[in-house]
Every structure is written in structure tokens, then in C-alpha cells.
Design brief:
3 helices; binds adenosine-2'-monophosphate; 4-stranded antiparallel β-sheet; Cyclic Phosphodiesterase, Chain: A; 165 residues; alpha+beta; globular
Length: 165
């Protein structure tokens, strides 16, 4: 079984910016490694390897050439359980179309989600407290790639990717 998810990778330069912000904040908890920073679009959980051919075809059914967009993450928040993250205060229509489109295709393929509403975010640290006096952080990048990842111990392995725009 493979633990899988579709996500937007965080470009290396932006990931470095985020890390440069994180370092002096003295965050507690477990920091997400720089190379693993991403925004999940659809979480698939554990699936047998035999599902990979289907998953490799699925995104092609979306109008990917129309779905590049600027993603601005400007809201620092900490959810229940200490999930410190950045989220967009404005939800780009393309982001919601991508996540919603993937969810619909997955449902149709017999791979339903857990029914929870999609709340886009980039996790910075787990089991963490909100920084006491956080320096504001806002990052923006052009989302131009959709990636299917396998989550393994110690990292995320890209299995397939599709250009946006
Ligand atoms: P998180 O960072 O908020 O924990 C790989 O684990 C990715 O899948 C992470 O972005 C993680 O979100 C997300 N993820 C893990 N379990 C999930 C679930 N049950 N529902 C939605 N996303 C999940």
C-alpha cells in the first residue's frame, strides 16, 4: 500500500524564504523539512500500487492549461493539535477548481475522501505553538505544477507531475 496525495510543490526559492523566516522564530514542535513544503490538493490515504495507472491518468481530465494561478499565502495560523501553517486569505478560483475537480474525479473513480471541506494550507510545523510575536510572513508564487506524491518515512517522492497553464 502507498500513502498518496496530490499537491502543489513549494518552489525551492520560496521554501528558502519560508525557512529564513522560520529559523529566528524559535518554533517548538516538529518543523516540516524545507524540501517537503507543499500545499495538498487532495489526500488519498493508503492505496494499493495497482491504483497508480488510474491516478496517473486522472488529472488529464481537468482543463490544466487554464489552471495556472498566483498563490499568495498570507495568513499564519495554528489549528487544533498544533498544526502551524500558512493559508491564503483569498482563495484563488483556480485552486478551488483544481482541488474540487480532483475530488470529483476521485469520487467517480470510487476513491472518496473523508467528506471534510477543503482548507488549503502549507504546514510549517506540527505539534507546535503559534509564535509569541510572529514576524509577518507572506509568500507568493505562480502555481505551475501539479504533483502526485508518495509519502514515505523521511520524505515525499514525486511519482508524476503535470504542468499547469
Ligand atoms: P497536513 O500537513 O495538514 O497534515 C501528506 O501527509 C499531506 O497530506 C500533508 O499535506 C497532510 O496535511 C495531508 N494529509 C494527511 N492526512 C490527511 C487527511 N486525513 N485529510 C487531508 N489531508 C491529509
Amino acid at each position: 500500500m502507498l500513502r498518496l496525495f496530490f499537491a502543489l510543490p513549494c518552489p525551492a526559492e520560496i521554501a528558502r524564504q519560508i525557512d529564513a523566516w522560520r529559523q529566528p522564530q524559535h518554533l517548538d514542535g516538529r518543523l516540516v523539512p524545507v524540501a517537503n513544503l507543499h500545499v495538498t490538493l487532495a489526500f488519498l490515504g493508503h492505496l494499493p500500487e495497482s491504483r497508480l495507472p488510474l491516478l496517473r491518468q486522472l488529472p488529464q481530465q481537468l482543463p490544466l492549461s487554464e489552471l495556472a494561478f498566483d498563490l499568495q499565502l498570507d495568513r499564519l495560523d495554528c489549528w487544533h493539535g498544533g498544526l502551524l501553517h500558512l493559508a491564503p486569505s483569498q482563495l484563488p478560483a483556480e485552486l478551488m477548481a483544481l482541488a474540487g475537480g480532483l475530488r470529483q474525479l476521485l469520487d467517480t473513480a470510487g476513491l472518496p475522501g473523508d467528506g471534510r471541506a477543503y482548507r488549503p494550507h502549507l504546514t510549517l510545523a506540527r505539534e507546535s505553538s503559534r509564535p509569541q510575536v510572529p514576524t509577518p510572513l507572506s509568500v507568493r508564487w505562480r502555481a505551475e505544477e501539479l504533483v502526485l506524491y508518495q509519502s514515505e518515512q523521511g520524505g515525499y517522492l514525486p511519482l508524476a507531475s503535470w504542468p499547469l497553464g
